[in-house]
Amino acid sequence: MNTRALLLTLVLTATGVAPAALTAESPKSPVIVTNHPLEFIDTSFENASPVWYDFALDGTVLVHLLYDHERSSPNRAAGHIHIKLHAKPGSRLTLEFRNLDNVWNGVSGSIARELKTVVISEDGRAWKSVPLESLPENRVRLHVEMPGPRLYVARVEPYRLSDLDKFLAGIRTNRLVQVTVIGKTVQGRELEMIRIGNAQAPFRVFLRARAHAWESGGNWVVEGLVRRLLKHDADARQFLERYCVYVLPMANKDGVALGRTRFNFQGKDLNRDWDKPADPQLAPENAALERWLEDRVKAGQAPHLALELHNDGSGLLHISRPPVPELARHVERMTIMEELLRKHTWFTEGSTKESFRNSGTLGDGWLERYRIDAVVHEFNCNWIAGLKDYPSARHWQSYGENLATVFYEYFGLVKP
Ligand SMILES: [Zn+2]
Questions:
Q1: CB 264, CB 285: distance < 8 Å
Q2: Could you state, in chain order, the average pLDDT of each consecutive group of 10 residues for the chain (416 residues)?
Q3: CA of 155 to the centre of ligand 1 (A)
Q4: Beta carbons of 271 and 211 less than 8 angstroms apart
Q5: Ligand 1 centre and the CA of 215: distance in Å?
Q6: Ligand 1 center to 312 CA (angstroms)
Q7: pTM for the whole thing?
C-alpha cells in the first residue's frame, strides 16, 4: 500500500465515509457563475504573471498569485502582477489578490501592506496608477471599470525583455557604447554588460537592475541614465570625461521572461550569497558578473561605486555595515551620495539605520570582499514622496537622467 492509499484509508476509517464518496464518484458542488462580466484572465504574453482564479459568491474575482520558492530555504515570494482582463466593456470588476503571504529572510509576513497601487493600461504601453483597497486580514482589492474589452493590470509599469532588446538595438552602434555578453542565465539567455564612455576615464560606476524579476523600476532608471549620457551636449561630455558607466540591465532575465517574482530559475536569490563565490550551476547570472568583476579588479579597473537597484514599499538607500576596516569611510561616502541624490533627484526617502546589515546582498558582499563602495538602492513602488505622485516609467527615467549629475559631483568630492 502506498502512502497516499494508506492516508486515504485512515481518513475513511476516521470519518466513516464510504470510499465512493471521496473518489471519482464524489458528489460535486456546482460552481454557479452566470453572466459574470469577466470572460478570461489572459496570461499568455511576455512577462505575464502565472495566476489561477475563481469567483466569490459576491462576484469578486479571486486572483491567486503563484509563489516562487528559494532553494534550501523557507523563503517564498509572490507579488508580481501582470495580467490581461478580457471582460465586457463598461463593466465594473472587483479583483482580490490572494497568496500575499511571503517569507522573506526566513520570516513570514504578508506583502499586503506593501501593495498599495497597481497600474492599468488598455494597450500595455500607456499606464495609469490606481490605488488598491486594503481590507482587514491582509486582503487587497482592485476596483476597475473596463474602458474596453481588454485591460492590462500590472504591479508596476512593466519592462520586458523585448523592451531591453529595443533599447540595446537603439544604442548599440553609438561610438560611446560597448555591449558585451558576459554570460548566460540558467535558461541560456545572454547577459549583456553595457559600457557607456571611455574605459580609461578616471572613475568607474557600476549599476545592476532586475536581480528580482518583478522590480522593473531599475530598468527605467538605467535607461534614463544611459540616454542622458548619450546626449551629445557639453554636460554629457564633461560627465564622461570624469567617469564611465557599466550597467548589467537585467540580471534575472529568466524570471522576467516567465513572469516570476523574485528568484532565478534554480530558486536562487541573485541579491544573496555575495559573501562567497557564486555557484555557476545554480546562479550562473551571478557567476558571470563575479567573473567580470574579478577581471576588472585584476586589470586595476574595479568600479569605484556600485548601485544595486530594486523596488519595494519604502524606497530607502540600504547602507549595509559589514565589519571592514574601511567602514567609516564607506558610510561617509554614502552620506555624500545621499546628499547628492536629495540635491539633484526627487529622492527624499533616506537611508537605513546604523544597526542595519543585510548580509549577502550585492551591496554588503562587494564592500566586504572587494572593498567597493556598493549599496542597494530601493525605489518605492507605490508613491514618490518627492514628487507627490505615483511612480511611473517617466519618473524613474528622469531619476536616471539626474543620476548622471549625481555621479559627476560624487566623483568630484570623493577621491580614490
Ligand atoms: Zn528586490
A1: yes
A2: 37 38 57 84 98 96 97 97 98 97 94 95 98 93 98 98 98 98 98 98 98 98 98 97 98 98 98 98 98 98 98 97 96 98 98 95 98 98 98 98 98 89
A3: 14
A4: yes
A5: 6
A6: 7
A7: 0.92
